[in-house]
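Exam revision sheet. Question 4 asks you to relate a sequence to its structure. Input first:
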Amino acid sequence: MSLDHRQLRAFLQVAELGSIGRAAKVLHVTQPALSRIIRELERGCRLTLFERHPLGMTLTEAGEALVPFARSILHDLARAEETMAELRGAGRGVVRVGAIAGVARQFLPRAIKSILDHGSELKVYVLEGSGGELAAALANGSIDIAIAHDNLADEEVAQVREAGYSEFCGVVCSTSHPFATAQDYCLDDVLNGSWVLPGPGTTPRKLVEEIVQGSGRRMPRAVVETGSPSAVAAFVKRTDLFGWLPESLYADELESGHICALNVPELELYRKYYIYKRRRGVLTPSASLFLRRLKIDDPNGEG
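Answer key, C-alpha cells:
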C-alpha cells in the first residue's frame, strides 16, 4: 500500500465537506476526476473509506481511522517543504505556537520579542485556544508547540517541560464595587453575591467549582455565564458582579485601575504552565530553535 499526498488531500477534503461536488470545487478539479482519486485510494487501502448516499458521503470506520494519519502526514510534509525552503534561503523559518488566552495576550508577546531581538529570523503564527483545542491542534499538526496550564489529556501530546512561571488566580471585582474598599467581608459574603462565571464544562469553571467545593461551600449564583475570558473581565469591569480570573486576563484593567483582586484566600490558586509538543512527528529546526530559546518571565517569581 502506498499513500499519495494528492489522494490524502482529496480524502480529507471529501471527509470534511461530506460531498464530492463541494470538495471538487475547493480542490479545483472535476467531480469525475475527484471520484477517481478516491477510488484509487480505496483500492490501494483495499478498504471502503466512504459510505455513498444520495445527499453525500460519510466516513466508514476505516475512513475515520485514516483521518488523523492523513492530517499528520500532510502537516509533516508541509513542515518538510518549509524546512527545505528555509535551508535553501528561500524563506524564513516558520513556527506555529498555540497558547491559552492569558499566555497569548500577556506573556507570549514578550517572549517572542525577546527571541526576535536576539536576531532569530522567524515568522510566528499564534493560535489562541482552550486546553482541549490546543491538544487537538497539536495532534493534527496545526501547531508545533503549545503553552497551557493543564496536563493536556491526549495520547498524541507530550509534555516537554515547565514553562517556568506560575500565575495567580482569584476573585476580582470592579474598583467601584462596594467590596473594593471594604475591610470586613468574608468568604460567605463574596459567595452570596452575584457573579459572572465561565460556561459550564470549561476548565476555568471546573477550577472554580473545585476550590469552592473544597472550601465546603456551594457555588455562587451566576447572573451571567460566558465562554469568553475577555467577556468575564468586561462584565466585572462594568458591573457589580464578582468574577474569578487568572491575573493575566485582567492585567490591563488592573493597571488602569478598573478591576481589583479581592482578598479571599480560600478561593485563590497558583497555576503552573507547561510546554507541549506532538508526540509523533518531528519538530522543524525553526520550532526546535524557538523551543530552546523560549523563556517566559515569571511575574510571581514562582517558576
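Marking note for examiners. The chain is about 45% helix and 25% strand.
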